[in-house]
């Protein structure tokens, strides 16, 4: 695979329109050599990275070096090791680019990702799973230091639902479906499905979702706290990009500290979380961006953050 840095350096710009609720934006689409994803820089300032999962057909697909034959004519972005490795490579590059303030991940209108590639994992054994730390590399998105927004259309099932939940914010199209159907395959969620649903939706809803394999629609997902907002299917990516653009106007340093504070609330006790938040709040007073932000507010002007 060609080095992604070279890809960005040599990208050819082609104007394309991304419709949003309020206006039209243009983006510069880079050429890529990825097999399972597409990457591009979007927004008026090209400061939002867009990763599109792109595995619509997978008959006899070569995934992570293994030939896989699927019974379905369309895999609906079934997640395989090759796809997840490519997502990790793209995230590695985007995190090194100081001009990028946020990352949006989406799929097709039919499916964000309809689950993990069952054919790929069917022959796994317990020993192989332990010895290879199976699925460890699938959690890369949850470790991103930059904000990641999932723009979900269609099916987000099993690994697809888990993938969306690893992102910081989920925007859903009005036809989106979420579910953890692993129970019907004689297994359980393995990339956070039982844990993140419980934290996002509560024990009862998570139990129902994981023990029955039933899907929930976008409206119920929003009502349950799994999804932040719901939009028409053809608007959700544009709205996610708008959100990424807004986040990109703030200090990247302070955004990172704020993300760490929210994640700490998600993973620890209230008392420990309050201590963590207070110390991070105090720490902002050592930064130039905090001083600039407050000074600009007092002087009634827009701040000019420098990531310092």
TrEMBL record:
One GO MF term: enoyl-CoA hydratase activity
EC number in record: 4.2.1.17
Leading EC class: lyase
GO cellular component: mitochondrion
Alphabetical UniProt keywords: Fatty acid metabolism, Lipid metabolism, Lyase
SUPFAM superfamilies xrefs: ClpP/crotonase
Superkingdom of origin organism: Eukaryota
Gene Ontology BP annotations: fatty acid beta-oxidation
CDD domains (UniProt xref): crotonase-like
Family: Belongs to the enoyl-CoA hydratase/isomerase family.
Protein name: Probable enoyl-CoA hydratase, mitochondrial
Native source species: Psorophora albipes
